[in-house]
Amino acid sequence: MSEPMAPAPDRRPGGRTARIRAQVLDAVRAELAEGGHESLTIEGVATRAGVHRATVYRRWRDVGGLLVDVIDAAGETDWRPPDTGSLLGDLTALNREIQESLAVRPSLAVALMSASFHSEQAAQAQTRLWADRYAQCAVLVERAVERGELPSPHTDARALLIAATAPLYHRLLLLRAEPDPDQPERDARAAVLAAEAGAFTVL
């Protein structure tokens, strides 16, 4: 059953409101990383954040609202795709970021992914965040085309990015393998070779 949609919080609150939002979202991240979605409660977040629970209820309404705001806040950060001068270098750097975020214990990235399976609100926010990240990373493919690294300007950027990054999620999340420092480059190289062969060219 879908959860009721909480109203979207203000994206750039100032003064005391900004401080309270920062305290609460920091508390949500800590609670998620330590105990996962199952142990996340308004009361626990309020206590950790040092604010009254009525403040949390009034602004975020429920756990789903808290999750949405944490995920949306991730999209507000000034993140930029890598720019190393080559497609292989860019994809390798991107994979290293991903591996680090998944391998750290406890991992907030993993906790948020898990939470998205329990909350429709979180799932929708996660989808928006991923769509935004793919759109940002399309520039990696655009630059590669401009440098002549790829045979066609009609390369499907999202398909290439998925091919480069998905093996990391498979190994670390599904197989629970130990992080391999060489894996980010190996996976990136496999995707680049496939792209050079035209595997992601769309007609």
Automatic annotation (TrEMBL):
List keywords of the entry alphabetically.
DNA-binding, Transcription, Transcription regulation
A Pfam family the protein falls into = TetR_N
Keyword flag Transcription: yes
Q: Which InterPro entries match?
A: Homeodomain-like_sf, HTH-type_TetR-like_transc_reg, HTH_TetR, Tet_transcr_reg_TetR-rel_C_sf, TetR_C
SUPFAM superfamilies per UniProt: Homeodomain-like, Tetracyclin repressor-like, C-terminal domain
Boundaries of every HTH tetR-type domain copy: 18-78
Bilayer-spanning residue ranges? none
Q: Which residues form a coiled coil?
A: none
The UniProt GO MF terms for this protein read: DNA-binding transcription factor activity; transcription cis-regulatory region binding
Source organism's superkingdom? Bacteria
At which residues is the DNA-binding region annotated?
41-60
Which Gene3D superfamilies does the entry link to? Homeodomain-like, Tetracycline Repressor, domain 2
Q: Does the keyword Transcription regulation apply?
A: yes
Its protein name is: TetR/AcrR family transcriptional regulator
What is the organism field in this record? Streptomyces xanthii
